[in-house]
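Table S2 (continued). Query chain:
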Amino acid sequence: MREYRGTLTEPGKNSPYRDRSVQENLDLFERMKNGEFPDGSKTLRAKIDMASSNLNMRDPAIYRIVHTSHHRQGDKWCIYPLYDYAHPIQDALEGITYSLCSLEFENHRPLYEWVIDNIGIFNPKPKQREFARLNVTNTVMSKRYLRYLVENNMVDGWDDPRLPTICALRRRGYTPSSIFNFIRAAGISKANSLVDIDMLEHSIREELNATAPRRIAIEKPIKVVITNYPEDKTEYFDLPNNPQNPEAGTRALPFTREIYIDASDFAEVPPPKFFRLKPEGEVRLMGAYIIKCGEIIKNEDGSVKEIHCTADLETRNGNPVDGRKIKGTIHWLSVPYAKDATLMLYDKLFTIENVGAIPEDKTYNDYLNPDSLVKIENAKVEPALADAEAGEKFQFVRNGYFCKDTKYENTFNRVVGLKDSYPKKQ
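Corresponding output:
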């Protein structure tokens, strides 16, 4: 068949079987269907034009023999239609008006139209239109490779939040509107291009900044004991649900003698311009008191067990009466009221920006990002998150935007970080 097909500059030659009678062809096709012939021994071809300038129109194969079990039909069939034949028929039967394809199908459009014109009367006829693929940096769109990742348990199924599938984007926390906005910003083109994934992150970040309730989560908790605060006292501070939207109201956060702060907010030997908690230093607890670092209690291995501090109980939400300036503000949670949670910090799946330009001596596997997922267990979250519904989205203050996982209990997936690098690249 390859020899008879011809070239781009030379016409093809008719097959010696091209002029078989209809009756003979129908008989052979029936026997193909009944499994009388081995794989590759017979092929049904469309009789079109072996002299066509388009090689796809030179009597293309439309049915082949494949003796293998089908994932739905089992062993009922041993003949299968080829894509170029099945595609237009399915579109016509399903009432598709426009079949949108990537550019490599542009030369297949005449065959698509030939099949539509020759299988019956359909009104309106489906139309095939082609445009460039939307290639995104640090992302692979190959379904074959995505399947390889899934089947080799290198990701957590087709809905793994690092994949570019719709179910994965949904599970990660992307909304339909954020994806539509990204598509509009990227635009439709006939030229192949590579779109920065930062555009997609910018789209969801803009949306969640305006809509997501603020909550507190602490990745690596350190206990702080406020020595001059009553042991049996609990008071509540009102924190805004969303500073971007005053109508979102506030929620009450409990405050007690023992609180958690994040390990990143404390330095025993602080670097220059470190404005968080440090020995003898002062810092403001978000929405609450100013505290001063005192004694540091350590474990046997030298790690910090807890920090003893004193609070300026006159400050509450206000400034010190003596006018001293406090530069740092950190988030916190009450030890008795904080809830345990797992945080899944997702990042780009590949370390190379243009995954389509991998050197010939390399494979996708050579560029898999080993830090594409960092799992933080035993994180602490505020009490309100215990009742969060699967798929609900939040901004974890100073950490990023997170979505309650739909697959695992008490787990929050990072949608995107707070930092927006996309506008800087424009």
